[in-house]
Amino acid sequence: MQVPLLDLKAQQKELRAELVAAVEEVMDSAAFIMGPKVKELEQKVAAYSGAGFGIGVSSGTDALLVALMALDVKPGDLVLTSPYSFFATAGVVARLGATPAFVDIDSKTYNLDPGLLGEWFKKNKPKVRNVKAIIPVHLFGQCADMDPIAAIAREHSIPVVEDAAQAIGAQYPGKSGVKKAGAMGTMGCFSFFPSKNLGAMGDGGMVVTNDPGLAEKLQKLRNHGAHPKYYHAMIGGNFRLDTIQAATLLVKLPRIESWHARRRQNAAYYNQNLNVPGVVKPQAVYGPEYHIYNQYVISIPEKRDELRKHLQGNGIGNEVYYPVPFHEQECFKYLGGKTGDFPHSEFAATHTIALPIYPELTTEMQDAVIEAVRSFMK
C-alpha cells in the first residue's frame, strides 16, 4: 500500500469547489495586493489565536524576519533559540547581522529547555545585555514550556518571539490559564506553507501580537516601511501576504479544529498500536488535547537511515526533521560550534523520523505504516 507522508490532493478534493470560488472572487475583484480578504484573515487568525492584532506576511520565514526587524535587531545583538528547528529560525537572525546563540532542547519535547536557558543566563552574564530576543520554537505542533521561558525573559526585560510556524492552534496550560501558540510572547509567527495544519496554496505567514505599537510598526515594515504611500519613516521590505492566499486560507480556517482532531485521532491510533520494541513514540507532555501533531515523530535507537529506506521501499512516506542542527551547519561555522555542544539536538537529528499523520489518513494506511516499522525493527 502506498502511504504518502502528506496528501494535499485529498484535502483539496474535499474543498475544491470552495477554493475555486474563493480564487475566482479575488480574480473578479482584481484586488490582488492587500485586498480585503487579507484584513479579514488577519482579524480571524488573531481572534483564533487569542491575540489582539494579526499582520499577514509573505511567508513564515518573513514573519520571523519582520518580527525581529520590529524589535530593531541589528549587528552586535544576540538572539537566543534552539539549534534544532527549520533553518529560518536562526537564518533570519544572521540575515540581520545579529548572532544566533543556542540553547539545547528538552529530549522529550524537542523544544527549548527552560532549565538550560536559565543556565545560559547564569554562565553568560557579560553577554546578557546584548540579548535582544528569545525565540522558543513550538516544534512539531506542541508548545514549548512557556511559563519558565517567559519568567526568564521578564527578569531580563527581553522580548519573546514565538516561532509557532508548526503550531497554530496548539495550546499551553500555563499558570494564567490555557493559551494558544503565538499569543504568549511579545509576538508570535505562523507559517502557512502548504504542509502546515493550516496551509495555503503557496507561501504565506502571519505575525500576531497584543502590542498595538508593534502591530503598527509591522504593518509599515511589511510594505517597505511606507506610511502613507511613498513616505518612508523606516526601511522595511516587501513582505505582503497575497490576497489569493488569504482567500484560500479563509476557506480552510473554519476546518482547522476538525483537522486537529483527526490528527489527534491518528496519533492516538499510533500510540495504541505502534508497540514495537525500541520505538519511542512522541510525548504530549501537557496532554494530547493540547498537541496539534503537525508531525508525528518517533525516535529509534539505531539504523534510522536504514529504517527510512525500508519504509520507502514499502511505499511509506517519511521524513527527517532535521538532520543537521544549526551549530553543525556549514554556514554557521563562524560561530565556533562543534559536535557535542548540544547533545539532545544532535541525538534528535540522528535518531528521529516523521511518519504520516495527516487528517485524511485511513486506519488501513496507518496499519501499513505500523507493519512496515515492525517488520524492520523485529
The CATH homologous superfamily of the largest domain is named Type I PLP-dependent aspartate aminotransferase-like (Major domain)
Figure out the total of helices: 12
CATH topology of the largest domain: Aspartate Aminotransferase, domain 2
Determine the strand fraction and express it as a percent band: 5-15%
Q: What is the general shape?
A: globular
- The tally of strands reads 11
**CATH architecture label name of the largest domain:** 3-Layer(aba) Sandwich
Tell me roughly what share of residues is in helical segments.
Answer: 25-40%
CATH class of the largest domain: Alpha Beta
Task: Indicate the multimeric state.
Answer: single chain
End-to-end separation in angstroms reads 20 Å
Main-sheet strand order equals 1-9-8-5
Major sheet characteristics: 4 strands, mixed
Number of domains: 2
Order of helices and strands: HHEHEHEHEHEEEEEHHHEHHEH
